[in-house]
């Protein structure tokens, strides 16, 4: 049997019959709908099978029904192909027709095309450039952070533990370990030491400052301090802060010389590790200071190669005479008795260290390190080179510091004597000339590679990448390497995240507003176009144009201006981005210019450019399709006079689309409130939380704008009555009729104006109010013009040094005999100052806690007790002294319009009487208890009278009133828990307290009236006498000693009101030179407020730009509206002109109508914006408890009002001036 016969034999089975054999070969045919196709599919790869013969023979075997079905299928497939091809041809034909028609129509109605083009272009351009700028905003905050803490990404410091006190970082070793690390661009060592700078020609002119020792060339190479404008330094050169130079009367760049000296005791303190131990929370024993000095001296000798085990035989007297060295008095008795000594190097070193450490104030043994330098440049800012907290700085190069140290050491008589005795003079000279100082750095700054993309990321992404980078670096160094690292720049950036989120939300609101305005304007444009061309569309439909073709024409018309608008908008955004990048490079000194857009800055604007016309098309298309041919061909038909009757059967009546939309909106709101807001709190997703709040505020604003549309007629009537006067009142009836007849169309214009103005006013007012609240909060929390505060409780403010620095500053600017000094100022910049103690619960060390309660000690609350000086309210911002209760039994001095309660705590101490108290009454001594192991005469007694006579006058928080039920007329109890840290002995002491006042705001402290805050340790304020009394008794209760000192935590300074920035900076620099920069922070309140004002002005300028863009869109909307009004009312106005009304009167009527519309919308928007802004601010004030201060942005208000009035006049004048060109007869005949 041949192959063909075999195929035919198998095919003879009926198609679709069941095959019971095990051969699945023929089953493959049955899976196909056509046996011929099955056969061809199975044997298409067999060359010897004749395809044609198989088809013919299979067709001969077909039944009649199969032949019929095959013919029907072939016919259907042929017709389907024809229909498909016909649909494609029809689609492209309609498309070509639409393009040709829209092109022709654009030439005739270019104004509409231009409006759509500009609208979409503005939206695309603004959204693109704003989105791209938002993503680059972290660069601005990065620059601000760099100006604050320096632009070092990593800071390495020695690691101090209880078992390791190595005070140095070995930069040479770290550089070797991190070499080749792709994350690190380089590291540079630094030293920061207090030093004294003198005028070389007049040493009496001297001042203290911070000496920074750094490798200036290396730092320039790795980009550390990229904005630093000064050149690297050479040997004997120094850069000095301008305030220091003014203080010592030295002019830079004139070859002037200065002397810089470091007392060796200061150097010892810097290198000893005591400061770093404190920063790690390890408090060193005071007796260890000598040991630290000895360690540092030993390190210096080891660096020089000194042999501690070698034996030396020396004649001390002879060596001293040869060197002409005066032997120190405390060594003379020893040397007179033992002229010749045999001593080891270790013993000689111990004698040297003992003499040196025991008499540092002796001029013959006093050791200073320093030299003479030439002043190169005057430093007028830190430029991100170093933390601004360092203040008065002097910068020298580390490559030459070894020679300076060697020269200083060899000028000291004691040091030269020691070296001569041990024959180490030459060895020391060589060692210091080649001093490996990089192995003994106090800190190390690291710079990351490609750092800007890291900081441009979101907070979580940035933190994650920095963790990976630092882990990589620490793997290179070693986990057990004795260094700690911090990320100062990242910490500073974290402090700016809230203002960054706030600005982001403002930008998002602007984008949403512009998108809404664009949708309304494009919708009005397309709807106006459809209404204008109703007759034209009717004729096209009468000639055979189908409805879907009409849809295609209207869609093509919207895309005709949308596509080129997107291209133009993105092009302009790209050009603007070039300017932004160059500006960022100039201001921020970015290493490269990134002209590429982020993907969101491309996708989102393009999507908006397409979606706005698509969404706006929906109602115009429905409007065009709903017209019958009769209505469309009626040339006398007027849209504003039409009446529509719609009949709906009851069984067809269901939910309207708007009802469905409201239902969906309510579901979304419920989901957001009950899920998304708790989610943002639980996972601390602040961007999500702020986005939800922003969406709620925008929703409120839009909702109120829609409500305002309902009130539009009322406001229009008021404005109309106000602007018409004299002969113009004769136009009132005509204008009122126009306002009523055009309201359906003008309501969209009213909504656009109201929405634009309300959003801009809301944003401007809320930012102004928030700026006021921020300024008030800063002034209240910091308390004074300048505040010096301790950041580590183991460090106390050096009161004597600070008082001396204040006296020096006031002396420099003092008036002479009541006349202005040569400095040209109005007297000393510092008016007064006052100090605040530490919390008594932490300092003194023998007080471990303080509890505040009623006399029955229930309920009880933890409090923080602070001591204040009597002039506290005279120095601080006492307008933030807000009280709810005050003891009116006393007469108070008035300071700044407020009673000086703090002064009363001093002047009227011990004079307060509470309810039920009898003056002079004290309970008698009470005896009780059992004598256990005591002598015969011993007794256990309690003297309540001592408690009544030593009560404490205090100022407490209003939060204690509902929490503990106290007021100024009820006694209270303060219990101090005490413990001796040396013996472990514990005790408690009780004091009766009497509140002079209950306050909810106090400058420099966090007070509140909210009961919840009483659980977090509210402040209690006392005078310094009570502070010392409590400390003395607390020490006695546990057998500790109290030396009578008062450790201060803060210094508040009040400046002269007209003090300029130079005077303030000199004061701050003088204060910084008197305290340790590691453990103190100096806050300039005026500078903080000024920076807030700068940000406010910048944002107001931004809002003005946004307002201008929104007003432009509103102008287009107004022009479109009045163009349609003129077209619809042309016949009526023809009649009016025919009976004698002038064209100018008609134009004025249009202008008055526009003014009514715009001004009413403007004031509605202003009211809405102010109401929402004040509501938001009032909500914030519920928590801040600050007095409400309304700060309205008048400049923004009047600029928008001016633009709105111009738009109202021009937007109505240009469309209405066409009335002059029309003949009355032609208008009445409907030919115009």
Can you tell me about this structure?
With 1232 residues, the chain is an alpha+beta fold. The chain contains 43 helices and 26 strands. Strands 14, 15, 16, 21, 22, 23 and 24 form a seven-stranded mixed sheet that branches. The protein has a six-stranded mixed barrel with strand order 2-3-9-4-8-5, surrounded by five helices. Helix 28 (686-710) crosses helix 31 (743-782) and helix 29 (712-723) crosses helix 41 (1143-1184). It is elongated and about 135 Å long. It starts with a helix and ends with a helix. Mean pLDDT is 77; it is low at 1-49, 273-291, 358-364, 815-822 and 929-942.
TL;DR of this structure?
This protein is α+β, with helices and mostly antiparallel strands and about 1250 residues long. It is built from 43 helices and 26 strands.
């Amino acid at each position: 049997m041949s192959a063909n016969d075999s195929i035919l034999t198998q095919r003879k089975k009926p198609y679709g019959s069941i095959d019971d054999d095990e051969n699945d070969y023929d089953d493959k045919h049955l899976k196909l709908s056509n046996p011929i196709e099955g056969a061809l599919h199975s044997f298409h790869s067999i060359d010897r099978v004749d395809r044609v013969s198989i088809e013919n023979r299979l067709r001969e075997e077909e039944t009649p029904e199969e032949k019929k079905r095959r013919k029907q299928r072939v016919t259907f497939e042929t017709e389907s192909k024809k229909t498909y091809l016909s649909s494609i041809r029809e689609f492209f034909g309609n498309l070509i027709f639409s393009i040709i028609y829209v092109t022709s129509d654009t030439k005739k109605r270019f104004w509409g095309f231009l409006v759509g083009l500009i609208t979409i272009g503005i939206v695309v351009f603004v959204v693109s450039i704003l989105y791209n700028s938002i993503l680059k905003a972290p660069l601005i905050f990065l620059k601000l952070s760099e100006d604050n803490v320096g632009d070092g990404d990593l800071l390495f410091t020695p690691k101090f533990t209880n078992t390791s006190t190595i005070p140095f970082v070995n930069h040479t070793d770290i550089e070797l370990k991190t070499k080749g690390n792709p994350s690190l661009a380089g590291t540079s060592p630094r030293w920061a030491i207090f030093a004294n700078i003198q005028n070389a020609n007049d040493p009496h002119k001297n001042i203290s400052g911070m000496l920074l020792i750094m490798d200036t060339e290396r730092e320039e190479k790795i980009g550390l301090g990229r904005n630093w404008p000064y050149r690297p330094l050479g040997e004997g050169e120094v850069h000095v802060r301008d305030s220091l130079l003014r203080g010592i009367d030295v002019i830079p760049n004139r070859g002037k010389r200065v002397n810089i000296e470091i007392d060796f005791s200061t150097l010892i303190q810097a290198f000893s590790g005591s400061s770093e131990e404190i920063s790690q929370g390890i408090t060193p024993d005071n007796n260890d200071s000598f040991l630290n000095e000895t360690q540092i001296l030993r390190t210096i000798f080891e660096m020089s190669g000194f042999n501690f085990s070698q034996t030396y035989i020396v004649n001390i007297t002879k060596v001293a005479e040869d060197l002409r060295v005066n032997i120190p008095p405390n060594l003379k008795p020893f040397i007179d008795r033992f002229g010749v000594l045999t001593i080891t190097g270790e013993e000689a070193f111990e004698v040297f260290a003992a003499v040196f450490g025991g008499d540092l104030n002796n001029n013959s043994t006093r050791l200073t390190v320093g030299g003479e330098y030439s002043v190169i440049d005057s430093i007028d800012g830190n430029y991100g080179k170093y933390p601004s907290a360092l203040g008065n700085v002097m910068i020298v190069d580390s490559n030459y510091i070894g020679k300076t140290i060697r020269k200083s050491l060899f000028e000291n008589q004691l040091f030269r004597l020691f070296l001569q005795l041990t024959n180490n003079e030459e060895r020391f000279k060589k060692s210091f000339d080649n001093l490996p100082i990089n192995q003994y750095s106090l800190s190390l700054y690291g710079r990351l590679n490609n750092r800007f993309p890291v900081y441009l990321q979101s907070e979580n992404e940035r933190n994650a990448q920095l963790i990976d980078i630092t882990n990589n670096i620490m793997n290179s160094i070693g986990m057990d390497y004795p260094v700690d690292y911090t990320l100062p720049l990242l910490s500073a950036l974290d402090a700016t995240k809230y203002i960054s989120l706030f600005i982001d939300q403002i930008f998002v609101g602007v984008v949403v507003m512009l998108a809404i305005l664009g949708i309304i304007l494009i919708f009005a444009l397309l709807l106006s176009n459809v209404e204008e061309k109703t007759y034209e569309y009717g004729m096209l439909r009468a000639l055979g144009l189908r409805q879907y073709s009409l849809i295609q024409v209207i869609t093509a018309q919207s895309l005709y201006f949308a596509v080129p608008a997107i291209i133009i908008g993105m092009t302009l955004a790209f050009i603007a981005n070039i300017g932004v990048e160059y500006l960022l490079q100039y201001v921020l000194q970015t290493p490269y210019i990134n002209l590429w857009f982020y993907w969101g800055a491309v996708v989102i604007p393009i999507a908006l450019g397409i979606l706005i016309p698509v969404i706006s098309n929906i109602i115009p298309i429905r409007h065009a399709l709903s017209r019958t041919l009769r209505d469309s061909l009626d040339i006398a038909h007027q849209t504003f006079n039409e009446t529509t009757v719609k009949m709906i059967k009851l069984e067809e009546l269901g939910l309207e689309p708007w009802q469905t939309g409201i239902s969906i909106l309510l579901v979304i709101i419920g989901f957001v409130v009950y899920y998304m807001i708790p989610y943002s709190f639980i996972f601390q997703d602040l961007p999500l939380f702020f986005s939800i709040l922003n969406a709620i505020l925008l929703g409120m604003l839009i909702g109120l704008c829609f409500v305002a549309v309902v009130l539009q007629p009322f406001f229009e009537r008021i404005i109309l009555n106000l602007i018409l006067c004299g002969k113009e009142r004769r136009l009132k009836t005509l204008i009122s009729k126009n306002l009523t007849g055009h309201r359906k169309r003008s309501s969209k214009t009213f909504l656009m104006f109201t929405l634009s103005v309300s959003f801009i006013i809301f944003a401007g007012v809320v930012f102004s109010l928030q700026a006021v609240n921020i300024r008030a909060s800063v002034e209240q929390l910091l308390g004074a013009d300048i505040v010096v505060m301790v950041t580590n409780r183991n460090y106390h403010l050096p009161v004597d040094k600070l008082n001396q620095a204040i006296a020096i500053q006031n002396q420099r600017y003092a008036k002479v005999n009541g006349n202005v000094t040569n400095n040209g100022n109005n007297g000393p910049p510092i008016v007064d100052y006052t100090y605040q103690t530490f919390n008594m619960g932490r300092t003194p060390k023998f007080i471990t806690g303080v509890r505040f309660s009623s006399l029955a000690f229930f309920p009880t609350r933890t409090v923080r007790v602070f001591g204040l000086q009597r002039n506290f309210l005279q120095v601080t911002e006492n307008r933030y002294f807000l009280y709810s209760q005050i003891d009116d039994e006393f007469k108070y001095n008035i300071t700044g319009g407020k009673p000086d309660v703090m002064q009363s705590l001093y002047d009227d101490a011990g004079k307060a009487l509470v309810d039920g108290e009898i003056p002079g009454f004290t309970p008698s001594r009470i005896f009780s208890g059992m004598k256990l192991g005591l002598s015969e005469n011993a007794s256990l007694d309690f003297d309540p009278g001592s408690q009544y006579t030593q009560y404490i006058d205090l100022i407490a928080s209003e939060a204690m009133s509902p929490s503990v039920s106290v007021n100024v007329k009820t006694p209270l109890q303060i219990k101090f828990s005490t413990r001796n840290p040396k013996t472990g002995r514990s005790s408690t002491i009780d004091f009766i307290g009497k509140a002079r006042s209950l306050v909810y705001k106090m400058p420099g402290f966090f007070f509140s009236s909210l009961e919840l805050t009483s659980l977090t340790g509210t402040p209690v304020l006392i005078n310094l006498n009570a502070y010392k009394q409590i400390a003395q008794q607390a020490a006695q209760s546990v057998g500790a000693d109290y030396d009578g000192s008062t450790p201060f935590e803060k210094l508040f300074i009040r400046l002269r009101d007209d003090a300029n920035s130079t005077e303030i900076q000199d004061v701050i620099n003088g204060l910084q030179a008197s305290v340790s920069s590691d453990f103190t922070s100096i806050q300039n309140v005026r500078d903080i407020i000024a920076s807030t004002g700068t940000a406010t002005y910048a944002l107001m300028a931004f809002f003005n730009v946004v307002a201008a863009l929104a007003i432009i869109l509103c102008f287009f909307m107004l022009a479109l509206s009045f163009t349609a009004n003129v077209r619809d009312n042309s016949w009526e106005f023809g009649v009016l002109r025919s009976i004698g009304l002038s064209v100018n009167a008609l134009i004025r009527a249009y202008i008055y109508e526009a003014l009514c519309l715009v001004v009413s919308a403007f004031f509605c928007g202003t009211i809405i914006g102010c109401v929402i802004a004040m509501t938001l601010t009032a909500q914030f004030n519920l928590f801040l408890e600050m007095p409400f201060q309304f700060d309205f942005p008048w400049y923004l208000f009047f600029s928008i009002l001016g633009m709105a009035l111009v738009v109202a006049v021009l937007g109505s004048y240009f469309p209405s001036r066409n009335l002059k060109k029309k003949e009355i007869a032609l208008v009445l005949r409907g030919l115009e």
